[in-house]
Specification:
2 copies of one chain form a homodimer.
Chain A lengths: L11 H15 L11 H8 L3 H14 L2 E4 L3 E4 L3 H10 L2 H13 L4 H17 L1
The structure holds a DNA duplex.
DNA sequence: CCAACCGTATTAGCTAGGTTAGTACAGCTG
DNA sequence: CAGCTGTACTAACCTAGCTAATACGGTTGG
């Protein structure tokens, strides 16, 4: 389910957060779904339970999941809405990256083609 | 000339590298231009000389600048070509970010509008 | 020639963040 | 009650990034 890259510059607990958020955004996980327990996930990923808990507690603070002692952790109802709103703030990152590509001399038509391509690809998934 | 954000998650030496590369890409600095000396830059930015040297030595390894003991550091002839080539590899980052925005529910038209806007803005600079 | 600048090298130490380890407590559930 | 769940806490370790101080050798201009 989760794929962790220990060599990555981004911390493991952030990789978990990012991947779970994408599961929600893509519909792979829905409101009410139960997450793997802290201990079982730590075993299957060969990662310390504390690291998993750090990811879960941050997701809980964000309102993406709801952790209940004795029961488990579950996707909240607001999760999808919250995440969509957050992603929209990436629009500025998108513009920054776009400016870099312009500096590199990429034409507007090339960019438009690229956008079309990605949109077609995303529809198939 | 340089603007350093000590609070940023990206290391100071990488900020220097990134900004200098952008100076070259935007034409603010050209082949043969002399960079501020390690010591003078460390003074003006209130940063340890070692940190500046780390940035410079990495830029030297990349072939962006050429450091000569006793003389100084200078933009190489190949700098612009190298950097343009490197920036092209950001196209995959661009696609990844785009996929995220699609997940957030942004329409293709909104993206196209954004691209048009950034291109118009970049032409004025 | 020499003082003042240049880049470079080396060693040491500090800090913050990320991760691991071990242990413990409390709430559910069958 | 046994076994699962989340949670809390402390201690230790490692690494990256940065700082500090010092030293060496090349270049340049007065």
């Amino acid at each position: 389910m989760f794929r962790i890259d220990l060599m990555s510059r981004t911390p493991v607990y952030e990789q978990i957060i990012e991947q779970l958020e994408n599961f929600v955004l893509t519909g792979a996980m829905k409101s009410g779904d139960k997450l793997p327990s802290v201990r079982s996930l730590s075993l299957s990923l060969s990662i310390n339970p504390n690291t998993i808990q750090k990811a879960y507690s941050e997701l809980d603070t964000k309102g993406i999941i709801c952790s209940v002692p004795g029961k488990g952790s579950f996707i909240t109802e607001k999760a999808l809405i919250i995440l969509k709103q957050n992603k929209l703030s990436q629009l500025s990152d998108f513009e920054n990256l776009l400016e870099n590509l312009i500096l590199a001399g990429i034409s507007k038509d090339d960019i438009i083609d690229c956008v079309e391509k990605v949109y077609k690809r995303s529809r198939k998934i």
